[in-house]
Amino acid sequence: MATAADMLLPLPQLSRPVADWVKAVSELTQPDAVHWCEGGDAERGALIGQLLRSGELKGLNPEQFPGCHLYRSEPNDVARVEHVTYICTRSQADAGPNNHWMDPTEARAKMRALFKGCMRGRTLYVIPYCMGPLDSPLSRLGVEITDSPYVVLNMMIMTRAGRQALERISREGRFVRGLHSIGELDPERRFIMHFPEELSIESFGSGYGGNALLGKKCHALRIASWQARSEGWLAEHMLIVGLQNPQGETHYIACAFPSACGKTNLAMLIPPASLPGWKVFTVGDDIAWLHPGEDGRLWAINPEAGYFGVVPGTNPETNRNAYEMIRRDTLFTNVAVTADDQPWWEGLGSGAPVLDWQGRPYDKANGPAAHPNSRFTVSARRNPSWSPHAEDARGVPISALVFGGRRREVAPLVYEARDWKHGVLVGASVASETTAAAVGQVGVVRRDPMAMQPFCGYNFGDYWRHWLDVGARLMRPPKIYHVNWFRRDAQGKFLWPGFGENLRVLAWMLERCAGRSGAADTAIGRLPRPEDLNTQGLKISPGDLEALLSVDPELWRKEAAEVREYLHRFGDRLPAAMLAELAETERRLG
Ligand code: SAT
Ligand code: MN
């Protein structure tokens, strides 16, 4: 009797354009074998088995961490590489001053030379994937070709990968082409190229995170932001979280913070015991695709299916959900291990490392045991606070958008924009201290508009215009906020406890959206007065709270001047409305 499996078409026969492309790439790269990814547990198990045998993966303690594995990347390949990430548009002005640009013809030639014969002795994997729920009209398709089985394992967790995605590609025709090879992992021969006009990506020489998992930053942000502009929506570097108040009302918010500034923690926040009755539901932790709905609201889907989160600092106190989530079926990258093969990282709070992230006997003199940008890859469904609406085809309605950065001074704990237009200026003005998520100096303040500086696939001037256009089409636009959990006092101590306590700030926002909470009007926007925040059970001195909610006009005039200088870099692409909003803020600052 014929089984269902017998009746399935072989993958290469499903889509002619994909098959033709795979053939052309095989001729160029010369792999020993070609493997089309079906998706599913059997394939995943086989890949893991192969990597365990070759020593590329290490099994972790099966009693304490069942189904968990450790991967160690090359020590020179541990973060995104923004200095060799390019947007290759025909016109340089379309990429904008915010991107490195290369002429597409030159970039293609350069990459062709690198890819030529690069997969000899290796297997070429074809990963068809869907960003977003498989049945959502808001989702978009892609195919990644890679010679890294580690990338395949990650993509299978992070996206809806395999046969069903390819079936949808065969119906719709359109897909983003992502070609990736680890090459020789030589930092001198490492390039991440984007061709938004052709919906394609070429990445060579890195096997790590955002450089190599092409569905993530390369597709779901850089290429998607381009697609979104032409189609009238927004692709943003935002978590999506649902907050249910003690009265049982749930509101969704989307928050943009730069990499390694706590998006994953906020997305799965645990309400403090002193705020009983609140519930938190995670829809996404890194990327939001936002579409104007027919009802005049903004609707969001999470294009991803898993989390690629920062490990250090995760413990039962800071984030119990994440701590529980990564105890099973999790792929760890660049953490340390204990004597009994448990993963270990700084801030775990128990146990001791015997091997560091490079597999060397642990020695304090070598620096942290786990790499500061060590990561977990885990299915979103492992998250105890995973939202039942995360798979909704139409997404979830957004009540508030929140921008934020990591800043020791200037930015108060929270403020509310005057309206959408002012909110676009607030987003464009985000600045943040750099983190270990990208190669380069850590802790220097840089402008990071909408937390998209590394990820916007086109000129920021055009991008802000698009934001203004989308806002103009919304009958019921979300309110826009700015937060800063990282404000410090003169001694360098954090003024705000962060983590679960951040719910107090989010609760104020939601009460504002419902028209139930007060605020003080200031030059930069509306701030809660101390009595507007629920501080019940919170250990904070009145002085610290006042410092967190203060706006120093002197510092802000300086800030506004810096923003003005920054915006002027975008010349005639900068919408006049942005300068008008800035002028209004400056007028209010006096
Ligand atoms: O390396 S990733 O881009 O996937 C993670 C991050 O930087 O946010
Ligand atoms: Mn991110």
What would you say this structure looks like, in words?
- With 590 residues, this protein is an alpha/beta fold.
- The chain folds into three domains: 14-56 and 84-231, Phosphoenolpyruvate Carboxykinase, domain 1 (3-Layer(aba) Sandwich); 236-305 and 388-589, Alpha-Beta Complex (Phosphoenolpyruvate Carboxykinase, domain 3); 306-382, Phosphoenolpyruvate Carboxykinase, domain 2 (Beta Complex), CATH 2.170.8.10.
- It contains 17 helices and 29 strands.
- The strands form six sheets. Strands 1, 4, 5, 6, 7, 8, 9, 10 and 11 form a nine-stranded mixed beta sheet that branches. Strands 12, 13, 14, 15, 16, 17, 23, 24 and 27 form a nine-stranded mixed beta sheet that branches. A five-stranded mixed beta sheet has the order 2-3-19-22-18.
- Strand 4, helix 4 and strand 5 form a beta-alpha-beta unit.
- The radius of gyration is 24 Å and the shape is globular.
- The N and C termini lie far apart (82 Å).
- The relative contact order is 0.12.
- It binds sulfoacetic acid and manganese (II) ion.
- Sulfoacetic acid binds next to helix 8 and helix 9.
Task: List the keywords.
590 residues, 22% strand, Phosphoenolpyruvate Carboxykinase, domain 2, 17 helices, Phosphoenolpyruvate Carboxykinase, domain 3, binds manganese (II) ion, 9-stranded mixed beta sheet, globular, Phosphoenolpyruvate Carboxykinase, domain 1, alpha/beta
Write the layout of secondary structure elements.
Elements: H1 4-7, H2 16-29, E1 33-36, H3 41-54, E2 57-59, E3 69-71, E4 85-87, H4 92-95, E5 100-101, H5 104-115, E6 123-131, E7 140-146, H6 149-158, E8 160-161, H7 163-172, E9 176-181, E10 191-195, E11 200-204, H8 209-212, H9 215-231, E12 234-236, E13 238-244, E14 250-256, H10 263-267, E15 279-284, E16 288-292, E17 298-301, E18 306-310, H11 320-325, E19 331-333, E20 336-337, E21 343-344, E22 375-379, E23 396-404, E24 414-416, H12 420-428, E25 431-433, E26 445-447, H13 460-473, E27 479-483, H14 503-513, E28 520-522, E29 525-527, H15 542-548, H16 553-568, H17 576-589
Parallel strand pairs: 1-6, 3-19, 4-5, 4-10, 7-9, 9-11, 14-23, 23-27
Antiparallel strand pairs: 2-3, 6-7, 6-8, 10-11, 12-16, 13-14, 13-15, 16-17, 17-23, 18-22, 19-22, 20-21, 24-27, 25-26, 28-29
The structure holds sulfoacetic acid and manganese (II) ion (MN).
